[in-house]
């Protein structure tokens, strides 16, 4: 008869203790397959515990398959295949602590080593209207209690989609039904939906230079990509070359990093290209169109499309804060039908609560107000920084371009220093900065792109522009 | 000289009106490529508007590539390739309204046609502790203002990962470092990450019958799957058969819909199987282990693994409410390294705010309290429904099984009626119900699974069990 001491059980209940010890004895082979276990009653009295305790422990062991019962006979040890027990398996059944695993470096860590980060185009947290957002959230909690628990359709909660459609109509000249707006947890996620929607065998054409993250995403999704060079009007539609891709992804309002606005002619050429074969589409990533600082927003390619070939993608991650993960895409009618048919089984990836809060934030006019305020803020910031760069000792050697839209400008630096050297010199002064050549796909010819810094100024404080300009002038002075 | 009336401009500004009309004239060919536009000054005085207005309109047209400037000469119409303009393109440049698109049917609509839904295993919204959740959210807004705007690592905010690791240790016997916990916007999204992590060429083995959604996800992700039959202990490891898959996805604590707990022997066999080849892994979907109603939780397969072959997946979507989209996976150390290296460029898909709120909800003990309350609630609900089914006229014809864990049980219905017929009869009484045969992959032999209803009772109200039992008895009485 098995007997346990029950003395070393520490905080465990009798039942837990019993369960673990019988289990350990089965795993270690002390109790052999087919061996009959003592009856509940006998086991209980032998160990000085209650029958219910034994019953519960046996029940658990049975549920997990360590023992089995034969009607009117009792409990027996299962054959769990002793040869299967991995050698390294600890016989106590408790896994070693995993404390040896270190937390990942945080995303910003590389940036934090520098005093000024001109690479990240995230906005300074101070500019987020936290007070208003908090108020809207509190209101949502109070007023939307019922809606917050109702499962929305795949595309998101209707209120947010209506607010976005209305916003697009008023401020972007895009006229769509709210049903065409599909909400998702970030643009990265939406890309994976688009890949599922358009089929995995399509080849994606991307802009070169372009954001490395987009290339990473497609690579990780197992999608074949081809790269396209650009001139000042956008992608160069070289004869034959355009045959290599089925889908083209571009940012026609403001290419990153080159800042190019795709010209009207190129837009029409691309739209025409898309109609020539059945499975051709264009993904329009409009990621920072809200921040065009001069004139009204550039017309969306989506609005020029009459053949249902353009998918429009935008995000609140850039226009609000990177920690609110809400993006959306607008599908043309034919693709919307396919989306509903083939991907309608998915749940929306954004929680209801933030969807309702954002809907209220947009419908209440707070988003527009925020954008206007930020546009003004960025215009002043940009003007100050450019003025200070030009008036300093660098002034004669730099030329600024593409400063009108979005949150970065380009700065050509004359001289014999290579980008690598310029970067190193800037980093020694505490400034993290990137160059056009950093955004080229491997194997590209860097020659035409050399010596052009990409200046993301959106994360700077207004007071910091003078120091940044001074530090750069100091770093890059000729005669050191 | 071009002249516009400016009378029909309605709410438009002069500048907008001018921009749109010149643009329309270029698209329509009224203004030809290469044609010189009037000077800003002349145009202004001719139309009775200010020079600044013309300047701004020209600026916009130039930015979009409709016109170009020649230094010291003036503005000219660009060649936008007239032959490229799609025939269907409306010349006003304003897109037709998309009002014809209907909103999708809402997810629950099919369910709403019925008085009682025994198919969805979503919890009744009334059971969600909304008051506590709202309090925690308000607290988060007040106390975490700074953290809410800081970009977290790919895996999520540290506080939530710590709270989950602590919860797993205390209530699930899983001992892991918080760094191994990866937060994502729903299990569906996590699957897509797992596919990217383990490689697209792997073949996934799934349980048959099983949730159709999982099959849909893998199909949509372009992944090859094979199906495995089960006996009462779990997947049958038939010789040779196990060679067909590289990854096995199972719910060892509670298979859906069969309710099977994978036995200890099978678990060890699966772990052994995984170690025999380099790229073999097991995905453990522990989707409703919190709701095991009898005894303590079944041991997680993850805890038995000593070879870094098991990925553990769980969700708060089932245990809290389906509208909070937070799930997580726990990666074994070796896969965690690969995850950081290959997928560390992704942003976390859950907004900071809900991550902090959930962290507080768990750390404050509210989650545990909620789970305990719900377990009690479900136990009472299940007991009532079973008692009422057994005591009614159906009593002699049904046998209930797999009622101890999770939020559904199986009910075999004796008789000659086919599942199809039983379903129709139930639906006529306003009850939506599914059968084991509904969860089989196409082409399976339905014979062994016939006449077993899958009863998801979690969405019922305590007061409704009697009526549901009566209606079913009425629907399925023999002599109609």
Labels describing this entry:
480 residues; elongated; alpha/beta; Arc Repressor Mutant, subunit A; Aspartate Aminotransferase, domain 1; 38% helix; 4-stranded antiparallel sheet; Aspartate Aminotransferase, domain 2; 17 helices; 13% strand; 17 strands; 7-stranded mixed sheet; homodimer
Give a description of the structure.
The structure is a homodimer of 480-residue chains. By secondary structure, chain A is of the alpha/beta class. Chain A folds into three domains: 14-79, Arc Repressor Mutant, subunit A (Orthogonal Bundle); 103-126 and 369-475, Aspartate Aminotransferase, domain 1 (Alpha-Beta Complex), CATH 3.90.1150; 130-364, Type I PLP-dependent aspartate aminotransferase-like (Major domain) (Aspartate Aminotransferase, domain 2), CATH 3.40.640.10. Chain A is built from 17 helices and 17 strands. The first copy, chain A, has a seven-stranded mixed beta sheet with strand order 4-12-11-10-9-5-6, sandwiched between helices. Chain A has a four-stranded antiparallel beta sheet with strand order 13-14-17-16, covered by helices on one side. In chain A, α1 (14-28) crosses α3 (51-63), α2 (40-47) packs across α3 (51-63) and α15 (366-391) packs parallel to α17. Residues 88-99 and 106-111 of chain A have low confidence and may be disordered. At the A-B interface, α1, α3, α5, α6 and α8 of A face α1, α3, α5, α6 and α8 of B.
């Amino acid at each position: 008869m098995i007997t346990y001491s029950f003395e070393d059980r520490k905080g465990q209940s009798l039942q837990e203790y019993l369960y673990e010890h019988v289990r350990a004895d089965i795993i270690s082979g002390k109790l052999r397959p087919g061996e009959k276990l003592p009856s509940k009653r006998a086991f209980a009295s032998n160990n000085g515990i209650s029958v219910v305790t034994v019953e519960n422990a046996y029940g658990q062991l049975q549920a997990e398959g360590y023992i089995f019962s034969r009607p009117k006979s009792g409990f027996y040890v299962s054959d769990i295949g002793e040869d299967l027990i991995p050698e390294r398996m600890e016989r106590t059944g408790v896994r070693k602590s995993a404390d040896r695993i270190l937390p990942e470096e945080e995303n910003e860590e590389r940036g934090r080593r520098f005093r000024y980060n001109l690479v990240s185009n995230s906005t300074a947290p101070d500019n987020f209207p936290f007070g208003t957002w908090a108020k809207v959230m509190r209101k949502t909690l109070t007023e939307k209690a019922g809606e917050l628990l109702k499962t929305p359709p795949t595309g998101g909660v209707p209120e947010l989609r209506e607010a976005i459609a209305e916003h697009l109509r008023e401020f972007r000249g895009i006229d769509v039904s709210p049903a065409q707006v599909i909400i998702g947890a970030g643009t990265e996620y939406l890309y994976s939906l688009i890949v599922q929607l358009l089929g995995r065998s399509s080849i994606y054409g991307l802009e070169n230079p372009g954001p490395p993250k987009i290339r990473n995403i497609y690579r990780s999704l197992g999608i074949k990509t081809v790269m396209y060079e650009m001139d000042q009007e956008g992608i160069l539609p070289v004869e034959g070359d355009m045959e290599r891709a089925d889908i083209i992804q571009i940012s026609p309002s403001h290419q990153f990093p080159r800042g190019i606005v795709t010209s009207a002619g190129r837009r029409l050429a691309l739209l025409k290209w898309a109609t020539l074969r059945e499975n051709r589409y264009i993904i329009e990533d409009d990621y920072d169109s809200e921040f065009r600082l001069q004139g009204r927003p550039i017309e969306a390619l989506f609005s020029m499309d009459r053949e249902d070939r353009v998918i429009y993608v935008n995000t609140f991650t850039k226009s609000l804060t990177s920690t609110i993960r809400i993006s959306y895409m607008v599908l043309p009618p034919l693709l919307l039908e396919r989306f509903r048919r083939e991907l309608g089984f998915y749940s929306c990836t954004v929680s209801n609560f933030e969807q309702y809060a954002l809907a209220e934030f947009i419908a209440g006019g707070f988003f527009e107000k925020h954008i206007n305020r930020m546009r003004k803020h960025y215009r002043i910031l940009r003007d100050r920084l450019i003025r200070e760069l030009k008036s300093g000792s660098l002034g004669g050697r730099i030329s600024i371009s593409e400063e009108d839209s979005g949150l970065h400008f380009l700065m050509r630096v004359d001289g014999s220093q290579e980008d690598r050297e310029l970067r190193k010199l800037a980093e020694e002064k505490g400034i993290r900065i990137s160059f056009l050549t950093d955004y080229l796909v491997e194997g590209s010819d860097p020659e035409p792109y050399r010596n052009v810094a990409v200046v993301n100024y959106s994360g700077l404080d207004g007071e910091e522009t003078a120091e940044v300009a001074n530090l750069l002038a100091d770093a890059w002075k000729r005669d050191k």
